[in-house]
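Record type: monomer structure entry
Structure origin: computed from sequence
Chain ID: A
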Amino acid sequence: MNFLKRVLLTIFLSVIASAGFAQSSATKAQKEADKKQDALKKESDAAQEKAIKRHWKGQDKETRKRMKQTQKKSKRNQKTKKWSSKKKRE
């Protein structure tokens, strides 16, 4: 009985140890994939910002002013509403 416990314990520990090693190599590959994805996202964001600036430069002064006002209005409407901070009626 004691021998059986030792054998089962040895098998159990070896399985846990081997799973830990296999998991760490998958994590490295995942980290590299995440780094590549982040780099692509940064590059994409930079290209989008550059395109927006180019679009703004192509407009005349009045149009830029209207675009700016529309952008502010849009940001104001996108804010989340805080239902808990409603004013109470007296």
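Annotation 1: The chain has a mean pLDDT of 83.
Annotation 2: The longest helix spans residues 2-57.
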